[in-house]
Amino acid sequence: MARAPARGAAAPPAPREGLLRRTTGLVVGGPGLSDEATWGLIFVIPYIAVFFLFVIYPVLYGLWLGSSPSTYVRLVNDPIYLRTVVNTLVFLIVGVNLKMFLALLLSGYFHQSYRWVKWLFLIFILPWAVPAIPTFISAHWMLNGQWGLINNFIWQFFRAEGPGWLTTPELALGSVIVFYIWKWMPFWTVIFLAGRTAIPHDLYEAAAIDGATGLQRFRWVTFPMMRNLYIICTVLSTIWTLGDFNTVHFITGGGPVLSTHVFATLGIRDAFEVGDPAMGVAVVITALPVLVPLVIYLMRKLHKEAVEL
Amino acid sequence: MTPSRWLQSCLGVVAGTVTAVGLIAGAQAETITVWWNKGYFPAEDAALQTVIKKWEEQTGNKVNLSFYSGADIPTKIISAITSGQVPDIAYADINDFAIAPQQAWNGKLVDLSDIVEPLKDRYTKTALLAAHLYNNEEHKRSYYAVPLKQQALHDFYWRPMLEAAGHKAEEIPTGWDDYWKFWQGVQDKLRDDGQRVYAMGLPVSTVDTDNYYTFNQYLLAYGGHIVKQDGSLNLDDQTRQAAIKALTFIGEAFSNGYIPKSAINWGDPDNNVAFFSKQIIMTNNASLSIPVAKFDDKQLYYHDIVTRQMPSTPDGKPMTSLVAVKVAIVPKGAPHVDLAKAFLKFFVEPKTLDSYLVAARGRWLPVMPELIKSDPFWTDAKDPHVPVAVKQEFEGPTQPWPMAFNPAYAQVNAEEIWGRAEGDVLVHGKSPDEAVDAAFARIKEIFAQYQIPTQ
Predict the structure, then answer these.
(1) Is the dihedral of CA B13, B17, B19, B20 positive or negative?
(2) Closest Cα of chain B to A255: distance in Å?
(3) Residue B129 pLDDT more than 80?
(4) Widest Cα–Cα separation across chain A
(5) Among partner residues B75, B260, B423, which is closest to A256 by beta-carbon distance?
(6) Which residues pair with A205 in a beta bridge?
(7) Are B96 and B126 within 8 A, CB to CB?
(8) Cβ contact, residue pair A256, B265, below 8 Å
(9) Is A16 exposed, middle or buried (0-12, 13-18, 19+ CB in 10 A)?
(10) For residue A139, how many other CB atoms are within 10 A of its CB?
(11) Separation CA B179–CA B222 (nearest Å)
């Protein structure tokens, strides 16, 4: 129950009449909006408009385009799609996990304080620093079986044809994964390196006094302290990689014979090369059962009150 | 400032700006938006810009021209038509192969009969067939595209490589089997000299258009006719055997090392690149892009690069060339349809069209036979390339692509059905019979979606 003002106390000032109420007579939540609230509304309207225009509308339009059940029947009957599902899973499971694990190990190496290690680190992060598309195009040409750098080297020195890096489906997907790791591992190494610097040095000293070996220190100190960061980064990387178009598109182009497509590239192919936008959207929508749980898991992890390394 | 004053000021500024922009726009000439396939070399783009400049000077209107690469422009056009935000004119080299027939079928293109009809007597029959598309929304055929230029498959080879193998141009056989054995022999000799070269630069991939141009031309050479002139599907035994033979021919050349393995991934520019880097001795291409890109190097253009007609068919008949007609379209919803039509009308005036094609150095050939007769450029005996193509496309037997009769075949192209069949043989180890049966099964499904009533 609201208390009456004390006798003799000055009455509180009446709230200023809000702009919306004065101009439209509209009452929001009882009294009209105060000037402060109106200012807030004015400033938030552009954001809401942009959000609806560039996020809500495209998403709804995409869902509408891919809403026909018959599209999904066609999709699952397409052998290229089934191959794409397998490729995407291999790309995510092998590519992401190998990259993250190697990045974790390398972050330990680069955590050393030698000057030459710092110089080496500078060289190591170059693949991440250079633009992705020219890098992948270079990789494509380097791997060309007939006039690429690697097979030309083999021909020059051994007079033999080198492996079909981009013409054998398994090697082509393997090449994609290798260059994906090469490109993005430095970024995650930097993140893990930052994580390592936050681990209290006392813990390592205590472990050393107890006679722990390097591997034991990693097993009982580093990894438990880095676990949360590692999991969050892995989930985040999986989400990003699920939408990765550039690596496959510019290294193999989905070839040979459409055998290295992942969801992101097949969606584009079906929508714009085959000329079937509904099918392209359907490909992307079928990634949602993987994507949505990952996003929910990530959000939950990030909502922990206490920051854990 | 109170919110109300602030809001009033903002509204005032917006209203004033809109009024001013409207007044300025009203006072100015109209502008059409044109999306165009970027040329293979700068002269092609310059040729278009010259035509546009002339039109702008004549009419006082403006053209907002955007060039997109051959790989990007189909994406732009299809996403524009899907979203409804379309340009006034869209031209892609691939329009006739995989965009215009399906979009006309779906009723997404403006009828351009008022441009094409008055020129009917001037166009080739093939050009008219390629632009006369079926609209399944209105259940009628009409001219939903404007023919601009045409192409057919020609062969190109390096004269110095031929001579290095101890041969002369006159020794090249014209019969199908002898012709290919000859080039394979050239490779063997050059390889004996330690050169890592390939005889046959034939695209066998699942991207772009060169691969299905090659396959469909060779299918025709072996006597395959998948679509009848009434638009019905023809998967009879003769066509099946022709497809099997074409796949077997390509498969054997590939597995014997006469076609580079990387051809399995080639996009349209890649056989050009391989040719220019002298990794392949001969290749085919469905325009004169290879020699005319080297026009400025007289040694290359007039001596080293040779254009020749394809060999005769395996049964010894003159090869019938599959002629593709490159077309411009006006998508429905274009903001300035009348102006777009006016521009296209200007573009296809014979004199303008000829100047455009000549300025593009003859990479593409005219779709109006009178231009060949009236402009000596096309038959100049000193030119080692253009007259060869003209002879093949205007004097030799020709045939339109199957999508001229049924848009379903454009979908066959878009889905790369024949590239996939080649891949099944070359990469997945299927027999040509199995690959053809799988291709035929999918082609039947596609044609079932494009039922044109008998007219």
Answers:
(1) positive
(2) 6
(3) yes
(4) 105
(5) B423
(6) none
(7) no
(8) yes
(9) middle
(10) 23
(11) 15
Contact B144, B135 (CB under 8 A): yes
> Which residues from A are below 8 Å from B280, CB to CB?
none
Per DSSP, the three-state class of A280 is helix
Mutate to test the interface with B, among A273, A279, A281 (most CBs of B within 10 A): A273
Mean pLDDT confidence for B120-147: 95
Measured in degrees and rounded to the nearest 5, phi and psi for residue A261 equal -65, 150
Maximum pairwise Cα distance, chain B: 91
Query: What is the pLDDT at residue A3?
Result: 44
E strands, B153-240, are: 154-158, 198-201
Q: Note the ipTM here.
A: 0.84
Contact status of B260 with chain A (Cβ, < 8 Å)? yes
Please indicate if any CB of chain A lies within 8 Å of the CB of B279: yes
Q: Which residue in B88, B94, B100 sits closest to B62, CA to CA? A: B88
Question: A272 to chain B, minimum CA–CA distance in Å?
Answer: 5
* Number of residues that make up chain B: 455
Which of B7, B262, B419 comes nearest A166 by C-beta? Answer: B262
The one-letter amino acid code at A33 reads: L
Q: How many CB atoms lie within 10 A of CB B20?
A: 10
Cβ contact B283:B202 at 8 Å: yes
Encode pLDDT of A134-145 as tens digits. Answer: 999 999 999 998
Q: Is the separation of the CB atoms in A136 and A250 below 8 Å?
A: yes
**Which of residues 21 through 80 in chain B touch A, CB cutoff 8 A?**
74-75, 78-79
Between the alpha carbon of residue B207 and those of residues A267, B92, B266, the distances in Å are: 15, 15, 7
* A61: nearest CA partner in chain B: B83
Nearest-CB residue to A258 (from B196, B206, B426): B206
Q: What pLDDT shows up at residue A127? A: 92
Nearest CB to B79: which of A255, A256, A272? A272
Chain A contact residues (CB < 8 Å to B) = 19, 22-23, 35, 38-39, 42, 65, 144-147, 155, 164, 166-169, 252-259, 268, 271-275, 277
Q: Say what the pLDDT of residue A8 is.
A: 45
pTM: 0.85
Q: Encoding tokens for residue A269?
A: 């192919």
Give CA–CA dist B93/B114, Å, rounded.
23
Residues of chain A with pLDDT under 50: 1-9, 15, 20, 26, 28-30, 305, 307
Give chain B positions within 8 Å (CB) of A277: 78-79, 82
pLDDT band at B329 (very low <50, low <70, confident <90, very high): very high
Dihedral sign from CA coordinates of B180, B186, B192, B195: negative
Burial class from Cβ neighbours inside 10 Å (0-12, 13-18, 19+) for residue A212 reads: middle
% helix, strand, coil for chain A, step of 5: 70, 0, 30
pLDDT in tens, B271-285: 999 999 999 999 999
Structure tokens at B352: 């303008």
Q: Across the interface, do A146 and B261 touch by the CB < 8 Å criterion?
A: yes
Q: How far apart are CA B318 and CA B326, in angstroms?
A: 25
**In chain B, which residues have their Cβ closer than 8 Å to the Cβ of A168?**
427
CA dihedral A185, A186, A191, A195 (to 10 degrees): 90
Per-residue DSSP letter, B233: B
Q: What is the mean pLDDT of residues B95-104?
A: 94
B82 part of contact set with chain A, CB < 8 Å: yes
